[in-house]
Write a structure and sequence with these properties.
This protein is an alpha+beta fold and 148 residues long. It contains six helices and three strands. The protein has a three-stranded antiparallel β-sheet with strand order 1-3-2. The mean pLDDT is 89.
């Protein structure tokens, strides 16, 4: 059986277009808003957010700056570390996320889950867990994006 290597890119492109069209934001920004919405007090240290999103700190900083301009997030200094900052989801950002979520969930469902049997969904979960475990080495000195 051949795996179509571009399926991830096709999915990402489809979800990005849907979010740009319906919510005026790229998929990356939506994912950052989701992570912040699920964090305690809707805030995360920038380094942890970069790690969670699997992106470089400079890419995160650029994304947060753009979302700050439209009032969706704000930065706060970290009280325990003068060099650190938190990204905080604003009430406006939470509202934007709430409006974007139903369309995005429907797009994900249509693109993936409506096309798979329950057994295939289970297998997909098992396979992606195995892949992620192998691709995210801990303490190996790996060149990971969020460390750059």
């Amino acid at each position: 059986m051949q795996v179509r290597p571009l399926s991830q890119h096709a999915l990402e492109d489809s979800l990005d277009r849907q979010l740009q069209r319906d919510a005026g934001m790229p998929h990356l920004y939506y994912g950052l808003l989701v992570r912040l919405s699920e964090a305690p007090r809707r805030r995360m240290r920038m380094t942890e957010l970069a790690k969670d999103a699997k992106i470089t700190r400079s890419r995160l900083s650029h994304a947060i700056a753009r979302m700050e301009k439209n009032g969706r997030v704000r930065r706060e200094d970290c009280a325990s570390d003068r060099r650190g900052q938190h990204a905080c989801l604003t009430d406006e950002g939470y509202e934007v996320l709430g409006k974007a979520a139903p369309g995005h969930v429907a797009a994900v469902r249509q693109a993936i889950f409506d096309r798979l049997t329950p057994d295939q969904v289970r297998q997909l979960g098992e396979i992606t867990h195995i892949m992620c475990d192998g691709l995210q080495p801990d303490g190996s000195g790996a060149d990971l994006p969020w460390l750059r």
